[in-house]
Amino acid sequence: MRLSAITEFFSFQFKTIKRSRFGIFGAMILIFFGIIAIFAPLIAPHELWESLRDSSGKLAILRQPCLEFPMGTTAMGRDILSQMILATRTTVIIGLTSGLVSVFIGANIGLFAGYYGGKLDEVFMRLTDIVYGMPFLPFLIVLISLFGRNIWFVIIAICCIIWRTSARVIRAQVLSIRQRQYIQAAKARGCSDLRIIFGHIMPNILPLLLLYTAFNIAWSVLAEAGASFLGFSDPNNITWGGMLYNLWISGKIRTAWWWFASPSICIILFVSALVFISRAYEEVANPRLRQR
Amino acid sequence: MQEFIIRRIIYAIFTIFAVATILFFIFRIMPGDPTAQIISPALDAASQARMKEAFGLDKPLSIQYVLYLKGLVTLEWGRSFTSSKPVFDILIYRFWNTIFLMGAAMCFTLIIGTGLGMLMAWKRGGPLDVGATVTALILQSAPPFVTGILFLMILSYQLDVFPTGGMNTPGMRLPSGMAMLFNKDFLHHLFLPAMTSAFYYLATPMLIMRDSMLEVTGSDYIELAQAKGLSPKMVMIKHAARNALLPVFTVSSVMIGFALGGQVIVEKVFSWPGMGLLIVEAASSHDYPVAQATFLMLAAVIIVLNLLADISYCYLDPRISVSGGKK
Amino acid sequence: MTQILNIKNLKTHYQSEEGVVKAVDGISFTIGENQVFGLAGESGCGKSTLIRTIMRLIPKSASVSADQLQFKGKDLLSLSDVSFRKNILWQNISLVPQSAMNALNPVYRVGDQCTEAILAHTDLNKAEASNVVERLFDVVGLQAGLMKAYPHEFSGGMRQRAMIAMSLVLRPELVIMDEPTTGLDVLVQERILRNLKEIRQKSKNSLSILLITHDISVIAEMSDRIGIMYAGKLMETANSMDLFNEPYHPYTLGLKNAFPSIKSLDRELISIPGSPPNLTRNISGCLFYERCPFSIDICQEKPPQETLVAKDHIVQCHRIEDVEKFRKLAGEKETWQFSK
User: Fold this and answer.
1) Residues 6 to 45 of A: which have CB under 8 A from any B CB?
2) Alpha-carbon torsion A213, A216, A222, A226, what sign?
3) H/E segment holding residue A190
4) If exposure means fewest CB atoms within 10 Å of the residue's CB, which of A21, B291, C12, C92 is most exposed?
């Protein structure tokens, strides 16, 4: 792709987000989390699994937030702040990877099914129906119980299912764009199918595509959090959901409010940031929603 | 329209079988001995060999597949590894519990959601509009276990207004059948998990209804309805809402499918003895017959729900039914 | 003759981001019993706003003022919203909207949408209301069975006829028709106009029509009186024959050129250059100044007054005395080729 197209793409992003109050707020939060994720090992004050002792030498179990441990400690004496920082990185990786891969799959299926129609469309749509018939979280659980608790299985399981929504929506959009005159004109000029799909149709579905990228990342994070909370996560890589799992099985849920608060708030912030950004995209994709 | 309905039913049946097939293969390609899927590794070698023969596990894959399908259709779903009880019995009991919980949650969500959405559109830009949007979006960003635990912490642990879990108070037996639905203890236990689930999904029908109403109120037929001298309430409900509900309906069917999958979390947090909790227990303890059957049951319910939604949408939108269901 | 609709100096102004939009700025005309008043004008001249102002369908943020806005002598502006809705709308004044395609609610049967108005305003029961609608369907040439059909099953012409039937269910004395033939093919147009004439002849009570369109041929065929609207004002108002035989206003002269005539097949179509003015600008003189080939300095400085030039013939122009000359010049192409 040409450089001008890429810069145009990013400036479009920038303008779209800047236009909406929601979008700006969301973007700021995402940037914040992104920075933490990148620099995580450098920022975290303590080791992940290190049981810590406080200044008086006692094991620092279940401490409330204080100067020494700004977010408190767990039942095993581990620093919650460090766990949070490192978990940020894992969660962001899982979210980004699953989200982007699934949108990639979904968009391609939607584009090709919508453009070619006929048998290809039928096959893809039956496939989508089947995937829609499968409950998301149970699928994650079953897959992980069969194949083992590993971060990659989590990502694969998420990607297997989440592409379905973007596929259907993009296909619907492609169906309506396909009829338009400039597409017919391109065909008449002898443009190849691939060129039409990626050169003419895709730029038009871009806002929708970005909208669903944001959604997919959000859903991936929520799904991973859910699966981790139920105990189906990678024991070596902590995530926010995993922290809440540790809390639940420690039985200290009634008292250790700080242990509950930090991961929960982060999940909520991160996902709502994505939702806000997607709202900004939605206002572009569907101008009627904009305030007059 | 008949043709449309029949076609949809055939697709649904096909989809269920496809999911069953996928399940069959997933459980076979797992690492380790595939026979562990059917026969509990806890049995001794001789019993294992006998059961192997009985289940046809020594036969080629294609025959196994036929036996598998036969078992599904005849409701011979095997026995649990952990409890040795027939899977079917375990599942049936849990099935209804999940359905009741989900039914309650979905009713809440749809009624509150569409009602709010309608009001928000009518008073666009007002405090209700902005406030409800932000609240709903945040609620949707909080995984159900977060809201669930929050409810527990405040309403159960601290204020003791609601029980902390389960379907009934230990020791008290609930009446069976329909009487259970009206039992006070049952409803008392139902409330928090249902609300948790409802809040999580609230944003969807609410925002869709709001957006849909906004789009509809710009229509020419709304203006004509006003020109006819109909009261504003009648215009809003009879003309605007009726049309605005159509997109809500389509999305709702998909939403209910998602909700069924998400039940898992709510049932875990509130220890509600349903299919969601069952699949977590089964997966954790590697009780594969139960896990497999529960998953398939969940999938089947979702597929049937989608089918029902498709068919009833036909009746709601005359443009589709009269033209023969060509979507 | 009693006046069904009496409008004097009606103004509808909107607030917009660019300023005050004077969509309707001092319109005056009257419609008598059994009279068809045709309102002609380009798109954007304020016709839709005028209709909506009369029927109170405009947003509350718009400001409406008038020296008189009366229906059969009753002041409409002083009525409360509720009273207006319950007594005037559809019973006295009804509407056949533009694009009948979208004006019918797609999820309800057409017959039900027609009886709805009857049930809302009278004591008739469902069966009686259906009978009324059935009779009207017959009048407009639609089969009674179509009452049970849905809007998407109707063709464009059928929908338009259904809208006409719907507008007559409560026997209003004034029906406003907004572009009744736009978007329909010529044969259907002709049939509908003929049908309208029959309805008027057969109707026992008085039926006046306010016919809004940009199609001069339709106006010529149907109207008793014609008003030429431009940028929120009425440039010329006269009885049909007078308007066509002795037009005064340069805009009217220009409009005549823009339509082909069977009589003079060779005549070139001459269009008026430019486009209507931005309704937010504060223009001190005549609104037609920029596009008028006959304008002079005073046209830019002072707005013209309404002048009675002949019986029932009102014009807003500074140069009425030279109209004979203008009528000849207007027929020539060079007159209209200028730029300001």
Assistant:
1) none
2) negative
3) none
4) A21
Chains that touch B (3 or more CB pairs under 8 A): A, C
Domain count, chain C: 2
Do B229 and C89 lie within an 8 Å CB cutoff? yes
Say whether B146 and A268 touch across the interface (CB within 8 A). Answer: yes
Whether C47 is in a domain gets the answer yes
Q: How far is B322 from chain C (nearest CA, A)?
A: 9
Give pLDDT tens digits along chain C (340 positions): 578 899 999 999 988 877 888 888 889 999 998 899 999 888 778 888 999 999 988 888 888 999 989 998 888 888 888 899 988 899 999 999 887 778 898 888 999 999 999 999 998 999 999 999 999 998 888 998 999 999 988 888 888 889 999 999 999 999 999 988 887 888 888 888 888 888 888 888 888 999 998 888 888 888 999 999 988 889 999 998 888 888 888 888 888 776 666 666 666 677 787 788 877 777 788 888 888 888 888 888 888 888 888 888 989 888 888 888 888 888 777 888 876 6
Judge whether C146 lies within some domain.
no
Best to test chain C binding among B1, B124, B224 (most C CBs inside 10 Å): B224
Between helices B144-151 and B242-269, what is the axis angle to 10°? Answer: 70
pLDDT tens across B49-88, in order? 766 665 556 667 777 788 788 888 887 777 777 777 888 8
Q: Which of B98, B138, B146, B277 to mutate: most A Cβ within 10 Å?
A: B146
Report which DSSP code applies to C176: E
Range of the domain at C64: 3-102+172-229
Same domain, C71 and C204: yes
Do C75 and C181 sit in the same domain of this protein?
Answer: yes
Residue of chain A with shortest Cα separation from B283: A145
Q: Are B272 and B97 in contact (CB under 8 A)?
A: yes
How far is residue C24's CA from residue C287's CA, in Å, rounded to a whole number? 13
How distant is the Cα of B26 from the closest Cα of chain A, in angstroms? 8
C121-131 as b/e: b if 16+ CB within 10 A: beeeeeeebbe
Query: Based on the domain organization, do C181 and C270 belong to the same domain?
Result: no
Enter the tokens of residue B186: 């049952």
Which residues, in sequence order, are CB contacts of C195 under 8 Å at separation 6+? C140, C141, C161, C164
In C, minimum Cα distance to B315 occurs at C107
- Is B265–A226 a contact, with Cβ atoms under 8 angstroms apart? yes
* Chains with ≥3 CB–CB distances under 8 Å to C: B
Do C209 and C330 share a structural domain? Answer: no
- Output the domain CATH number for residue C220: 3.40.50.300
Window 122-161 of C: residues touching B by CB (8 A cutoff) are: 150, 152-153
- Domain A32-55+69-291, what fold? MetI-like fold (1.10.3720)
* B18, B149, B295 ranked by CB distance to A142: nearest: B295
ipTM above 0.85, yes or no: no
Say if the Cβ atoms of C105 and B243 lie within 8 Å. Answer: yes
* pTM listed for this prediction: 0.75
A190 interface with B at CB cutoff 8 Å: no
pLDDT tens track for C1-48:
578 899 999 999 988 877 888 888 889 999 998 899 999 888 778 888
Alpha-carbon gap, residue B77 to C337, rounded angstroms: 89
| Partners of residue B295 in chain A, C-beta under 8 Å | 134-135, 138-139, 142
CA dist C26 and C232 (Å) reads 8
Give partners of A (≥3 CB pairs < 8 A): B
Is residue C158 one of the residues assigned to a domain? no
Rounded to 10 deg, the angle between the B288-316 and B2-28 helix axes is 160
